[in-house]
DNA sequence: CTGAAAGCGCTTACAG
DNA sequence: CTGAAAGCGCTTACAG
């Protein structure tokens, strides 16, 4: 079956290709009767415009690239779903680049895939962009929105990770805990600007404000932001009977779940012997009864799309855009894994 | 900064656009010296071909559409990462369509997004495709590869879900269990062709072969393929003290994790009071000591890409393609959540 | 409101 | 091995 082209539609409707194009795209004026005739003709032969031909002349691809280091961590999966839905609703495609830390793949994505004229804009999720990377996008005049990562250039959307770290720690302090450990994400100490780094900073600040700075230093373990990561890290922390903490602030809920299982394995009751607080509002948090600081990644993804569409000059954005620089919302949810020190 | 076009490269190298094109694409013969000159010119001005212009003439987009119902279930996330890596390595983009069960979004994806000439092929993961959907792709002559879903048309890659269900059940039978429950995925009984349906069939077959058909009927609960789903389902199953099962076959590892937590909550020891077996080989399985039937979703994703590339006529496929119709590999891994009935 | 024409940036027969 | 020319399927000034 041959694919119908706009010439076929024009012929069937008895108009020129120019008029057919205007009628179908809604750009430029067309008489109502003509428009209806063209639309009927297009429907009859199942015409759909070739995106390649259209973008060759308009320079727009109706396509947004998403760079994301994980798909399988809860936070990232939720963000991705939110982005996908919002993009689909706006008629845009989503091209996925699942690249993490530095490496050949990452360079390839920025130098080849994103440098081509195939995406109109880029959303980077949880990626700490280098100068070179943002400059490359900038040179191609591609709008960039970063969600929860660090880097210059582009719009930056993020929660206040430092405040989150401080709040989680203060919650435990106010329950009377002083031996408070922190399960931090890998690279937290070497990358103070990163998400992990900021949460760690918040923890250190709150501990220092309570006069527990030296206590804090001895109680940080860096590990993968996953359940096994939290499990292993917590085992390490809780194995030291003499200096065993009475509370743990985990940098993510998945790590917190792992810490809970580690406590169970060691015969420690939660929250009787150990209080645990996480960050995220993971879908499993309720099942674990986990006290956590919720964030709303699906919503964050949709918001990133709103900002991108705005930067692309689409004025269809219904929701108000956030004040630039204002942190994204979070909320402390107290459940049954934290309790007063006994 | 103006984007360099192939004409600029040609001028700089002192050749025609045709020769520049041939030198850069590797199609057609070009003298070695000429090729080097063209390549140097391209590098100098940072030339990258416009995909829109190229695909307008070749009809190829170097882009594969992936239709997937979840991003945030372990199996699907792993498959997606596998697909992404393999596609990136082959120079293809991945356009993500995160659509689940029937609905407006799903129709929109098939009728509008996939119907346009923007993808060269489609990989459908865990989607039960309708006649209409496969016909639509077929009409556009887009190769289709289905991974672990049902549907006619296209290549179909999948593990033998019926055999997996039977093997899991037989493992429990051979340990002496007779009161074996099954946590099935939603829709297992109404969609016998689906992944959930086949695993349920395997369970029923094995139970019937052991003369326990009536036992089986009373012990199936359908629930979401997630940890909370397994938790709720298991609570329902284990709450009945008189008819309490001594073993549970969960249709996924995430459900199995939920079942383990449910048992703990009810004061039942695993495996002392309850044996649990799952399916997947989830990254958390080892931490839970879970007995499971492993499958290899990342590998499955890469394989789906190999098949797609083959269908697209790319002969760069290194790995041998599987025998058509042969089930994908699985493996029983016995850990500490299953034990002999005491 | 509508049409004829040019052009977006490539690739590919067709000659040579 | 290389070049001139046509053409992929659209959209958009430019006229009218």
TrEMBL record, chains A, B:
Keyword Transcription regulation among record annotations: yes
Coiled-coil boundaries: none
Pfam family, one: LacI
Domain HTH lacI-type stretches: 8-58
SUPFAM superfamilies for this protein: lambda repressor-like DNA-binding domains, Periplasmic binding protein-like I
PROSITE patterns on file: HTH_LACI_1, HTH_LACI_2
InterPro entries associated with the record: HTH_LacI (IPR000843), LacI/GalR-like_sensor (IPR046335), Lambda_DNA-bd_dom_sf (IPR010982), Peripla_BP_I (IPR028082)
Key words, A-Z: DNA-binding, Transcription, Transcription regulation
Xref: SMART domains: HTH_LACI (SM00354)
Presence of the UniProt keyword Transcription in the record: yes
Protein name in the entry: Ribose operon transcriptional repressor RbsR
Species: Agromyces neolithicus
């Amino acid at each position: 079956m041959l694919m119908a082209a706009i010439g076929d539609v024009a012929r069937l409707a008895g108009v020129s290709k120019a008029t057919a194009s205007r009628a179908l795209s809604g750009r430029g004026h067309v008489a109502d009767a003509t428009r209806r005739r063209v639309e009927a003709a297009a429907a009859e032969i199942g015409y759909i415009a070739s995106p390649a031909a259209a973008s060759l002349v308009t320079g727009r691809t109706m396509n947004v690239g998403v760079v994301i280091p994980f798909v399988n961590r809860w936070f990232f999966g939720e963000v991705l779903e939110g982005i996908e839905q919002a993009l689909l609703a706006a008629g845009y495609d989503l091209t996925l680049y699942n690249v993490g830390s530095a490496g050949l793949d990452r360079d390839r994505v920025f130098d080849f895939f994103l440098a081509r004229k195939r995406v109109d804009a880029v959303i980077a999720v949880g990626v700490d962009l280098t100068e070179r990377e943002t400059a490359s996008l900038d040179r191609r005049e591609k709008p960039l929105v970063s969600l929860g990562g660090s880097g210059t250039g582009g719009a930056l959307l993020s929660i206040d990770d430092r405040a989150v770290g401080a709040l989680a720690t203060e919650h435990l302090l106010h329950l009377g805990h002083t031996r408070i450990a922190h399960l931090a994400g890998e690279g937290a100490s070497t990358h103070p600007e990163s998400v992990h780094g900021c949460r760690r900073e918040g923890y250190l600040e709150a501990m220092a404000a309570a006069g527990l700075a030296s206590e804090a230093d001895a109680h940080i373990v860096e590990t993968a932001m996953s359940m096994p990561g939290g499990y292993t890290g917590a085992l390490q922390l809780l194995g030291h009977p003499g200096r065993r903490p009475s509370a743990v602030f985990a940098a993510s809920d998945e790590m917190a779940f792992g810490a809970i299982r580690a406590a169970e394995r060691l015969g420690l009751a939660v929250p009787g012997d150990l209080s645990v607080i996480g960050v995220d509002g993971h879908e499993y948090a309720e099942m674990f009864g986990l006290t956590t600081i919720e964030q709303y990644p699906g919503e964050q993804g949709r918001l990133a799309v709103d900002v991108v569409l705005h930067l692309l000059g689409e004025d269809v954005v219904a929701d108000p855009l956030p004040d630039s620089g204002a942190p994204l919302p979070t909320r402390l949810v107290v459940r049954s894994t934290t309790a007063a020190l006994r």
